[in-house]
Fold each of these.
Amino acid sequence: MDHSFTQSYREEPVTADGRKKTLIAFEGLDGSGKETQSKLLVEHLKSLGIPHRHIAFPTYRPDWSGLVSLYLNGGFGEDPEAVSPFAASSFFAADRYCSFMLDWKKDYDDGKIIVSNRYTTANAVHQLSKLEEKDWDSFLDWLYDYEFCRLGLPAPNLTIYLCLEPSIAVKYIEKRSESGFRHTDIHEKSLDHLKKSYKAAMFSASKLGWVTIDCAAGGGMRERQDIFNEILQTAGDYLK
């Protein structure tokens, strides 16, 4: 891990009365269980009476994430690679900025634990994958400076990457789509994009110091409670 890169984003901010501000981000390929595991963590915090807030990105609010929806629904074309990673990253960043400033900033500033299903980290997976590997370092430099410095969004204290290989992830994406749970977007439709994003995620996890949890077992998914128990071991110090 490149500690010099992440150090400036790891200075833990505190509330007005000196309590630590905490943001825990869940990341992973589509179908890896981010929503399930983030909700399990929220239920755990609730059972302990710990003040918290659960957020998710994209927000899919038309007034905040209109460009995100246009992009994911194929408005710029069905090929994710055809849209500049810098443009697409800006779409998602604007959604986060609106959400933070208009919705959960006070909760964060007051010291509630923020649990996020996806965050800036998603750009470090899906948009990074569009670039040649020689440009990966510079893109991550730009991304973190853009969102955390120039836009002033809070950086996660902890990022949990739920690792699932594309060949397994696509099975769960298809199952979810067939059940009518959610429309499949242009990222989810492209196995090539998922493969590239998996490689980019492994790079980002190493460089940015994410905690990686292997979610696969026997060609399928581990039991969700088993995965969650490992998450609790990882996140314990951040939940106090």
Amino acid sequence: MRDVTNEPRFVFREMMLGDLDAIMEIEALSFPTPWSRRSFVSELTENIYAHYVVVEVGSRIVAYSGMWVIIDEAHVTNIAVHPDFRRKGLGERFMKEMMERAKSRGATKMTLEVRVSNLTAQRLYERLGFVPRGCRKGYYSDTGEDAIVMWLDDLGPPGAVTDGVKYR
């Protein structure tokens, strides 16, 4: 695996409505039951707690993630990387970016759900300090699969991650 996440070609920025065609493509390639376009529109235009970010390479969106920040808790709603850019360290780098963004919005802890079958994601979250704290039985309505609820209790002090990544 070649780690390319320190290359300056990755740009993190806020998601915009104009990004949704690319988001919907990645969503369809990543999940058995993709979110609808309407769900993303609602998150971007109606949910005051929502914060969505994309990763660009040149003018191509290659990943996205979202979270809700409510008081001092951040809840990761989704994260997806285009298959062409997986296994290069981008998912980990992106989670660190979302953790920093959560801290900058006042969050001190973070939570997420992950499919019981998604061992790769579970290992990533554990490397970042998340621990399993519960199970939501039948959480995923498409398959009836359970979700593991994971928490990171201390996001640490705010501080920009500056490992060669451009921000705008």
Amino acid sequence: MRKPKLVLSCASVALALGIAAFVLLPRPGTLRYHLQRLGDLRQSKFLSSPSTRGDYLRSDLWLWYLHGRPSIADMEREQQALIQLGYFERRELTFSHRGLDPRLWSEFRSAVSNSPLTEWRYMVHLDDSRPSVIRVTTCKTDIPVFERIVAQLDTK
């Protein structure tokens, strides 16, 4: 008599966990999935080799070993997916009066860090062949902030 109740209870718990996982976990192709994936790639990109015994117990280290070091192409795929979903936009911002030298880059980074932007929501791309251009991939609502920063720094 107890076995059927135990089996029924276990089946109910398993079903509830399955439904919860389906509802709570982001599904591929969704905005939430690609944002989470991009965040994971950005965090693991800077994961260094283990330096202590405790590092070997970290799950992100084992995932890094299993999946390999994230590539720029992986990050680009996630950015493109977010652009296609309409959440991100990619814009090239040009400095008309200044070239992108170490001083300007430092000023740009400082202005961005002092702005209301969130670190995980934007990516900045530089191209050595075009030293006056910064390509920004970010939320559509953050583009005006970057445009304002470039305009302010370009007049100095």
